[in-house]
User: Fold this.
Amino acid sequence: MKLHAAEEMSRCGAAIRDPAQIRACGKQVEAQLADFAQTVKAGSHTELAMVYRLRDMLLSQRAYLTAMTDYTAHGGKSRGSALYTDLTGGTKPFGQLPDTFAFAFDETESPLIQELWFEDGTCRTAWRAPRPIPEDDDFFENVWRSYRETGNID
Assistant:
């Protein structure tokens, strides 16, 4: 089951991402987590550690796939290290490539930050503006120099 889960995540959540596959994989992970206690058993304490590792892996996959699904639902397109398949408005860099490689760049570079948290058994998402960069210069080097010079006594 662990190998299958890893292969599915690589298929739908790696560098080339098809939004439909992401949603389908997310539903599959949700179902696996819902049935986890009934379908996964440990015969020894060694296997118990593997069970917890598998559960952690599935929880992580659920978080990542939820974030990816939400990103595309908010109009997110290809940028950075991910190519999101876009069969309606995208283009392929080379005609001989399969349609999976049709994509459109995210030209907006939205300044919003996606947040994800786990609440009441569900992954939730929200978008917010970035916080300003603090103006303080409390970097370690500056604090250490001040301590050496003044003992940080004002």
Summary: The CA atoms of residues 112 and 129 lie 5 Å apart. The longest strand covers residues 113-119. The chain is about 45% helix and 10% strand. Strands lie at 16-17, 83-84, 113-119, 122-128.
